[in-house]
Amino acid sequence: MGRHGSSRCGWLGRPSRHKYPLEPRLLPDPEASPAASDAACLQKLIFLRALRVLRGYYFLDMIAIFTDFGIQGPYLGQMLAAEAPAVPVVNLFPDLPPFNVRAAAYLLSAYSQYLPETATCLCVVDPGVGSARRPIAVQADGRWYVGPDNGLFSIVIRRACQVDAWVITQVPERLSASFHGRDLFAPVAVGIASGEDCPGEPVEAGTLVAPSWPDELAEVLYVDHYGNAVTGVRAQTLERDAEVEVAGRRCAFRRTFAEAESGEAFWYQNANGLVEVALNQGSAAQQLGLAVGTPIQLSR
User: Fold this and answer.
1) Which domains does the chain have, with CATH numbers?
2) Largest alpha-carbon pair distance within the chain?
3) Chain centre to alpha carbon of residue 200
4) Are 152 and 105 in contact (CB under 8 A)?
5) Phi, psi of 57 (to 5 degrees)
6) Model pLDDT, residue 61
7) At residue 124, what are phi and psi to the nearest 5 degrees?
8) Which residues, 6+ apart, have CB-to-CB distance to 214 below 8 Å?
9) Ranges in the chain, pLDDT < 70
């Protein structure tokens, strides 16, 4: 039995019947303190469960892809072409830093929080593919996460109010040693999004790989198209008069790009609640020499 005594894949795994969500979406407040966020999280779970019982409504299930495959080449298409024509699919984050499970773990927690509560995240950052690492499915605060047990889900689990976990025991007839995203994780994710039971054995969440990474990761995790540098620090942990020092440059807080002078480097709270270093009308990565792994220092 799982952590909460369920041998099924969870209380949200039901087929959708409506085109659009019929329940209100309750999103986390990026300005809230950690304690307030925990309380709001618990209230949200209680509210959603009660509302589903009273109204009997269904969300539209969907799959969100989170991977380091990149947008070039055949991998994204192959992973879902044969399995997902009936399930809506969103490329949430298809170009994560290659092989960087730690960076991906922090980004997954931040970028999956605004998905529908019944979304299934298909997560493949898997440098150990084909090894003895376990394939798993995790349900954290309603959302599903399917992928390798290599620490990728550790930050999501750490910050969740409620967690259930399964080791996937299904072995497909065709299982490439190097492409579990296509042959194993995608079919399982599609099944869960379609309302099927998880083909696995429940395990305690505490038995999953959980590296001793910090709560806030003070380094650049991703550089976007504009040259903005996304970090692993949640902005709610900083005061607005704090400065971020990166590559020898001290950056003050600006609420919007318009508040900064043209060419000024600054930090702001991005739309997913993370500290992001930017340059107004320019590339912070190019101007400051930033890349994935560049450390930042915080003056609180």
Assistant:
1) 34-207 (3.40.50.10790), 217-299 (2.40.30.90)
2) 59
3) 22
4) yes
5) -85, 165
6) 79
7) -130, 90
8) none
9) 1-37, 44-45, 47-60, 82-86
**What is the per-residue pLDDT for 55?**
36
Contact between 217 and 273 under an 8 Å Cβ cutoff? The reply is no
State the pLDDT at residue 59.
45
Judge contact between 232 and 221, C-beta under 8 A.
Answer: yes
- What's the token pair of residue 164? 């259930």
Q: Residue 31: what pLDDT?
A: 60
Q: Which among 2, 3, 10, 47 has a CA at the least distance from the CA of 196?
A: 10
The per-residue pLDDT for 242 is 96
Backbone angles phi, psi at 166, to 5 degrees: -140, 145
Structure tokens given for 55: 């109204």
- Token readout for 231 is 């970090």
Q: What is the pLDDT of residue 9?
A: 43
Question: For every residue of the chain, which 3-state class applies, written as one string?
Answer: CCCCCCCCCCCCCCCCCCCCCCCCCCCCCCCCCHHHHHHHHHHHHHHHHHHHHHHCCCCCCCEEEEECCCCCCCHHHHHHHCCCCCCCEEEEECCCCCCCHHHHHHHHHHHCCCCCCCCEEEEECCCCCCCCCCEEEEEECCEEEEEECCCCCHHHHHHCCCEEEEEECCCCCCCCCCCHHHHHHHHHHHHHHCCCCCCEEEECHHHCCCCCCCCCEEEEEEECCCCCEEEEEEHHHCCCCCEEEECCEEEEECCCHHHCCCCCEEEEECCCCEEEEEECCECHHHHHCCCCCCEEEEEC
Q: Can you give the C-alpha Rg of the chain in angstroms?
A: 20
